[in-house]
Design brief:
The protein has helices at residues 10-19, 29-42, 61-69, 79-88, 104-113, 124-132, 167-179, 198-219, 245-260, 276-279, 311-315, 405-408, 414-418; strands at 24-28, 50-54, 73-76, 95-98, 116-119, 138-143, 184-189, 223-227, 269-272, 283-294, 298-302, 321-323, 333-338, 347-354, 362-365, 386-390, 396-400. With 420 residues, it is of the alpha/beta class. Helix 7 (167-179) links the parallel strand 6 (138-143) and strand 7 (184-189). The model has no long low-confidence stretch (mean pLDDT 95).
Length: 420
């Protein structure tokens, strides 16, 4: 069972809220570092292991720098994410570039950086070669196993996904790479999101290890790495159990020895591209209650909205809520917790049992450290909120300021409007 606690005392949180107006996202550096080290320890048996942090989960350079310090790379899917990684000091094979419907200039930049380029479709071999003048020395393919591997609720069925090569295309594609003189190879898949069953990831590894052994035997190519993807979930609900990384690591080790090394393939590097499970549990959206509304239901109106945390509105996702200072009060009131967008689905919680709430209360939405601030937007002219980092020594650093109206209007030229 996952206990939902705050990263600091009530007094500290209230003090932070006096220095930075709510809403804001707060991240716990100490917990993020400890979590990163736990993942590395679970895969320490593989000398080349690396997790490429999925930048899309939390594209903040301060968080990325923390994870770079812990030995993580960056999983990127766009030019801005590549540029952000460069700003942090990541380059070369510390970057995994996995994209789809990619423009030529983004492939060129990734190759110039020396990133691991992961192609999404067999037609991209020719496209990449034409864009860059030649193929890079290392090329990876993204595999879509189709009905061979079940997906889950968020990512859907692999056979219905737009991503990746079929099995037949993999054999054809690697054969073509070999003919073109490519010497270094990788294989990748990503078939689940927010999955809590540890066996799912072990089974994915078995699928890829068996495939690599077949490709090695049939085509005579040796793989340098296998990227097992991400998708390791977090227990958003208190009653859920988190993924035991030690069980996952040991299960993959056994499969690696039996299904890959045991079939004659040399040692290779194990990669992951986890984002959510690294920062997700250690980020918090802090918001203040503005209004209470009593009509057909009781509504708690927040100064945050789905522009600050979209997942509940987008997926119907659950985020646990702590009413600061009322942890011991009975949860004997039923509320819809809402934002101020002109959208009826702008709700953080529907018919949630909480302690009695009054205007001015601080509410903390847990597990908002991934796909939270990152999914922000400006509909209704809403301004994206600040991001703060709770340092290991207890101090707080602003790692992204809140947007202003000037930021929102920066792409508009009002001088042209006067003459329009």
């Amino acid at each position: 069972m996952s206990e939902k606690t705050l990263p600091c005392t009530e007094a500290q949180l209230r003090d932070i809220a006096t220095r930075w107006p709510t809403p804001f996202h707060l991240y716990d550096e100490k917990a993020i570092r400890a979590n990163a080290r736990r993942m590395k320890a679970a895969f320490a048996w593989n000398k080349g292991f690396r997790n490429f942090f999925a930048v899309k989960a939390a594209p903040n350079p301060f968080l990325m720098r923390v994870l770079k310090d812990e030995g993580f790379g960056a999983d990127c899917s766009s030019l801005p994410e590549l540029l952000l990684s460069e700003k942090v000091g990541l380059d070369g094979e510390a970057i995994m570039f996995t994209s789809n419907d990619t423009p030529a200039e983004e492939f060129v930049h990734a190759v110039e950086m020396g990133a691991n380029v992961n192609l999404d479709d067999i037609s991209h071999i020719e496209f990449l070669e034409k864009a860059c003048g030649k193929l890079p020395e290392l090329v990876c393919f993204r595999y879509n196993p189709g009905p061979l591997k079940g997906g889950n609720a968020i990512i859907g069925k692999p056979e219905e996904a737009k991503y990746g090569f079929t099995r037949e295309q993999l054999f054809e594609g690697y054969r073509l790479l070999k003919e073109k003189g490519v010497k270094r190879f990788g294989l990748h898949t990503m078939v689940a999101s927010n999955e809590l069953n540890p066996q799912y990831f072990i089974d994915t590894a078995i699928l890829l290890f068996d495939l690599i052994a077949e490709l090695h035997a049939e085509l005579g190519i040796t793989f340098e790495f296998v990227n097992l993807g991400g998708g390791i979930g977090i227990p958003y609900r208190p009653e859920q159990e988190g993924v035991n990384l030690e069980i996952v690591g040991e299960g993959i080790r056994k499969a690696y020895e039996e299904r890959l090394i045991g079939k004659g393939h040399p040692e290779l590097k194990i990669y992951l591209e986890c984002g959510r499970c690294i920062t997700g549990p250690y980020g918090y959206l802090v918001s203040t209650v503005r209004h209470l509304k009593h009509t057909y239901r009781d509504y708690v109106g927040m100064d945050a909205c789905m522009a600050n945390l979209m997942r509940p509105a987008l997926y119907g996702a659950y985020h646990h809520i702590t009413v600061v200072g009322k942890a011991d009060a009975p949860a004997d009131h039923i509320y819809d917790v809402t934002g101020s967008l002109c959208e009826n689905n702008d709700k953080f919680a529907i018919q949630r049992a909480l302690p009695e709430i009054v205007p001015g209360d601080l509410l903390v939405f847990h597990d908002a450290g991934a796909h939270g601030h990152a999914m922000g937007f400006n509909y209704n002219g809403k301004l994206r909120s600040a991001e703060l980092l709770l340092r290991e020594d207890g101090s707080v650093t602003e790692i992204r300021r809140a947007e202003t109206i000037e930021d929102l209007f920066a792409t508009l030229d009002f001088n042209k409007l006067a003459a329009f």
